[in-house]
């Protein structure tokens, strides 16, 4: 009557695909134990140091489970223990991992009665609490795995799970605070048509690059002309980190989700290591503490 779920960190946006593209990482991950109970409602315990809210109405996993329970006719509830392996606020889908892992676990305890698409919908209720926006670009890869495209949220959720070539990622998390809600406030309300054309050309190129394992095409299609320029001032060192990463052999990259982490895709582990070091040295020079993660997609 209990299951253990490892729910992974995810990269969202992947450059040009704001609120649309997502990619699951092998690590880090949240560990979630969930038990089905006869007592209705949701009880959350956090067995980590982050002091996240445990009131189910304030906790991303709690809100996601309450959304799922609203569709369950039986009088049941869940006891949940969460160990965050993904640091909250780091920009690699920490809230999405907890929300996604909780509903995947609950679904297993309910005989897999919900589809992945429905699970994404439940987990998005958690994302709304965390960031003030209902976006699925971290939830989708956490639940489907691999490379995902959120083609539509309305009128019905439409998510594509696509193949990704072998990739190694380097993520550097500078210890500065960038709240998703704040980094969405700086975004332009309208986009000049010329920029929009360049952006959707890149979106098409990136998808084609993933489908054909064409690393050069992926690299030259990643640039985000719309969102990243607006967020650039929020992350000191970003432009230099990118320059250093490309010189060290990265395929391409940018802000991870809404930041502050910066990610770079690489062909090999050795390249990802070198790229992680190159980016880290930029933040070290600025006197900003940072953590580096290097691992496979
Ligand atoms: N796509 C979202 C954003 C991800 O960039 O704001 C936030 O985690």
H/I helix tally: 10
Shape: globular
Arithmetic mean of pLDDT: 96
Q: What are the distinct ligands in this entry? A: L-homoserine
* Element string (H = helix, E = strand): EEEHEHHHEEEHHHHHEEHE
The major β-sheet equals: 6 strands, mixed
Instruction: Look at the helices and sheets and give the structural class.
Output: alpha+beta
Would you kindly provide a written description of the structure presented here, covering whatever features stand out?
With 297 residues, the chain is α+β, with helices and mostly antiparallel strands. The chain is built from ten helices and ten strands. Strands 1, 2, 3, 4, 5 and 6 form a six-stranded mixed β-sheet that branches. Helix 1 (60-69) packs across helix 3, helix 2 runs antiparallel to helix 3 (116-131) and helix 9 (238-247) runs antiparallel to helix 10 (269-285). The longest helix has 20 residues, at 193-212. It is globular. InterPro entries: GHMP_kinase_C_dom, GHMP_kinase_C_sf, GHMP_kinase_N_dom, Homoserine_kinase, Ribosomal_Su5_D2-typ_SF, Ribsml_uS5_D2-typ_fold_subgr. Belongs to the GHMP kinase family. Homoserine kinase subfamily. Residues 64-146 form the GHMP kinase N-terminal domain. Pathway: Amino-acid biosynthesis; L-threonine biosynthesis; L-threonine from L-aspartate: step 4/5.
């Amino acid at each position: 009557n209990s299951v253990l779920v490892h729910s992974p960190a995810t990269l969202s946006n992947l450059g040009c695909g704001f609120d649309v593209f997502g990619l699951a990482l092998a690590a880090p991950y949240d560990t979630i134990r969930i038990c089905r109970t006869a007592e209705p409602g949701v009880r959350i315990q956090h067995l980590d140091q982050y002091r996240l809210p445990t009131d189910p109405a304030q906790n991303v996993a709690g809100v996601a489970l309450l959304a799922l329970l609203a569709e369950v006719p039986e009088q049941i509830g869940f006891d949940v223990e969460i160990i965050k392996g993904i640091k909250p606020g780091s920009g690699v889908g920490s809230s999405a991992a907890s929300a996604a892992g909780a509903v995947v676990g609950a679904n297993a305890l309910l005989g897999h009665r919900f589809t992945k698409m429905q699970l994404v919908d439940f987990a998005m209720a958690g994302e709304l609490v965390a960031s003030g926006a209902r976006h699925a670009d971290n939830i989708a890869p956490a639940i489907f795995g691999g490379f995902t495209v959120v083609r539509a949220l309305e009128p019905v959720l439409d998510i594509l799970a696509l193949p990704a070539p072998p990739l190694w990622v380097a993520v550097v998390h500078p210890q500065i605070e960038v709240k998703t809600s704040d980094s969405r406030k700086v975004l332009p309300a309208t986009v000049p048509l010329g920029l929009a054309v360049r952006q959707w050309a890149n979106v098409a190129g990136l998808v084609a690059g993933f489908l054909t394992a064409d690393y050069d095409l992926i690299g030259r299609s990643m640039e985000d002309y719309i969102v990243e320029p607006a967020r650039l001032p929020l992350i000191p060192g970003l432009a230099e980190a990118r320059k250093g990463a490309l010189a060290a052999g990265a395929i391409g990259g940018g802000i991870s989700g809404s930041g502050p982490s910066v990610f770079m895709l690489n062909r090999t582990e050795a390249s990802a290591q070198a790229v992680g070091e190159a980016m880290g040295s930029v933040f070290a020079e600025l006197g900003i503490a940072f953590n580096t993660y290097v691992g496979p997609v």
